[in-house]
Amino acid sequence: MSIGKNRGAAWLLPAAVLLTILCMVSAPAPAPARDVLLAWEKLDGAAAGYKVYWGQSSRAYDFSADAGTRTEFIIRGLQDGITYYFATTAYDSSNNESEFSREAVIAPSTAPSGISGAGGNCFIATAAYGSNLAPEVEALRGFRDEYLMTNPAGRLLVNAYYSISPPLADFIRDSNFLKAMTRWILSPLVYAINHPLTALLLIALTAAGSLACGRMAGAVCGRRASESGNPGDPQKG
């Protein structure tokens, strides 16, 4: 299917406007190459799949790939030192294809938006909460950008997350039980991010309560041990 044809499906127009570059990793090779992870918001409706386009000229793409129903796609082996342009489209069961999404650009030797803190996707949280725009996902993304991406250890953790999270997110997305379980696991972290002072107070109270219970248990055990070791004077006959 050639570009510019079959664009008449108006319902597909906003299909991939939330294109976000998430991860760009330099490969240790004699000729530097990069892998780019793209993600976009799922279109509710009759979208049968998505296509990814990229090239070295704006709106004149040299390459394309069919991503199927996935909402993320890895492009491997891009040359370092070259500016690349990316866009996506959605198509329906009749191969009617939408207009291009908003274009994303990677300039030479620059970090992508997700790594530099411009709001990349959180795959697992998005799969669990059903939308990249969910308040819980936005809270987790803000925590990542403000506290993790500002230090080397945090960036290492984020890169590790992006290397393993896409397949896990696909697995979670297909199971209502796993989505509910993931939300349950993430809920304390989301609450702590949104209410840090309250979370610290609860942690302090929990720690103090645990310490007090431990001391009380120790005192009771010690008293019982003392009583069992000193039964008292026998009655005189």
Please characterize this protein's 3D structure.
The structure is a single chain. This protein has 6 helices and 7 strands; from the N terminus they run βββββββαααααα. With 237 residues, the protein is α+β, with helices and mostly antiparallel strands. The chain starts with 19 loop residues before the first strand and ends in an 8-residue tail after the last helix. The chain has helices at residues 113-116, 123-129, 135-148, 152-173, 176-194, 196-229; strands at residues 20-27, 33-39, 49-55, 63-68, 72-79, 84-91, 104-106. The strands form 2 sheets. A 4-stranded antiparallel β-sheet has the order 4-3-6-7, with no helix packed on it. A 3-stranded antiparallel β-sheet has the order 1-2-5. Helix 2 (123-129) packs parallel to helix 4 (152-173), helix 3 (135-148) crosses helix 5 (176-194) and helix 5 (176-194) packs across helix 6. Helices cover 42% and strands 20% of the residues. The radius of gyration is 27 Å and the shape is elongated.
The side-by-side strand order for the widest beta sheet comes to 4-3-6-7
How many separate helices? 6
| Biggest sheet layout | 4 strands, antiparallel
Indicate the percent of residues in helices: 40-55%
Oligomeric description of these chains: single chain
Radius of gyration, taken over Cα atoms and rounded to an integer in Å: 27 Å
Structural class: alpha+beta
Number of strands: 7
Extract low-pLDDT stretches: 1-31, 109-119
Large-scale geometry = elongated
| Mean pLDDT across every amino acid position | 74
SSE series: EEEEEEEHHHHHH
Q: Alpha-carbon distance between the termini?
A: 110 Å
